[in-house]
Design goal:
Layout (H helix, E strand, L loop, with lengths): L14 E3 L2 H13 L4 E6 L5 H11 L4 E6 L19 H10 L4 E3 L3 H4 L18 H4 L3 H16 L3 E5 L3 H13 L5 E5 L19 H22 L5 H13 L6 E9 L13 E9 L2 E9 L2
Parallel strand pairs: 1-4, 2-3, 2-5, 3-4, 5-6
Antiparallel strand pairs: 7-8, 8-9
Helix pairs in contact: 6-7, 8-9
The chain binds adenosine monophosphate (AMP).
The site of adenosine monophosphate has 17 residues, from helix 2 and strand 5.
């Protein structure tokens, strides 16, 4: 069906499949027909950030595949796997509106055979930032993305800068394991008050939602300080913590760090573009955000 479609982004019916075999067949047919395949990996509960990744990929491929899989192996014990928001009907409509050709939504039992014992693990970048607080998380991410890359065989895949560490880890995996895939990292899409869009924002109460806007305000403050010539990471981190901490509803700052963009190792003095990354718990909800200083 869609595999033979010669024209980019025309609106034929989207194919939805949970079958790994069918997905592989569609991809193989497309590749044989000389069509470029694009992949947008997601965990669903789609928002405008995901839609932006789809649009970017759509412009770069002939067959656009969106995967929707809440990947159990990237959640730690006590994390939100069971309650992660899911709504396939709504997600299908978002994908259709973005002219997606194939919505691939496999079951966990098919993705992970009983007794699965092979992992893909990146060992340097994954140890920093979120890696310290979510042991095993990036191993789950690299494993599932490697599997999706093998199943779909994309020429191009898009990821969001919102998950900056994840994007760098994927880039490293693609380099080190020689995946013939172009990785495109797209800017963070934000709500009107600056809060980075995230499926997890759905967890926030009204009061928490208002409180969560301080994350973006803190990034803006950091940019102001950087623009004013401040290069000390400690000074910037302290200011960011002040902005986030300023509110009646208490929040729990997991980390605020300035790190080198290439290694994700902490820097003291910012001499080249650096990543300011943070993770904050607002109520029970863990939010992350980041900005590049000196971009
Ligand atoms: P998720 O469904 O949260 O696993 O995210 C799937 C992809 O969407 C990842 O590459 C994320 O980095 C990206 N993404 C999530 N939120 C945003 C956002 N607000 N702006 C841009 N990309 C995003």
């Amino acid at each position: 069906v869609n595999a033979e479609r010669p024209v980019r982004g025309t609106t034929l019916a989207m194919r939805t499949t949970g079958s790994i075999g069918e997905m592989q067949a569609l991809s193989m047919a497309a590749r044989r027909a000389g069509r470029r395949i694009g992949l947008v990996p997601t965990m669903g509960y789609l928002h405008a950030g995901h839609a932006a990744l789809m649009r970017e990929a759509r412009a770069r491929c002939d067959l656009l595949v969106v995967s929707l899989f809440v990947n159990p192996t990237q959640f730690g014990p006590g994390e939100d796997f069971a309650r992660y928001p899911r709504d396939l009907d709504r997600d299908s409509r978002v994908c259709e509106a973005e002219h997606v050709d194939v919505l691939f939504c496999p079951e966990a039992a098919d993705m992970y055979a009983p007794g699965s014992s092979v992992w893909v693990e990146e060992t340097a970048l994954s140890a920093e930032l979120c890696g310290r607080y979510r042991p095993g998380h990036f191993r789950g991410v690299t494993t599932v993305v490697a599997k999706l890359f093998h199943i779909v065989g994309p020429d191009v895949a898009t990821f969001g800068q919102k998950d900056a560490q994840q994007a760098q880890v994927i880039r490293r995996m693609v380099r080190d394991l020689n995946f013939p895939i172009e990785v495109v990292i797209c800017p963070t899409v934000r709500e009107a008050d600056g809060l980075a869009m995230s499926s997890r924002n759905a967890y926030l109460s009204d009061a928490e939602r208002r409180r969560a806007a301080s994350l973006y305000r803190s990034l803006c403050r950091a940019q102001e300080l950087y623009a004013a010539g401040i290069r000390s990471a400690a000074t910037i981190v302290a200011a960011v913590r002040d902005v986030i901490g300023d509110g009646t509803l208490p929040v729990d700052i997991e980390y605020v760090e300035v790190v080198a963009c290439s290694t994700l190792k902490p820097v003291e003095d910012i001499r080249e573009p650096a990543l300011l990354a943070l993770a904050v718990r607002v109520g029970k909800t863990r939010l992350i955000d980041n900005a590049v200083l000196g971009a």
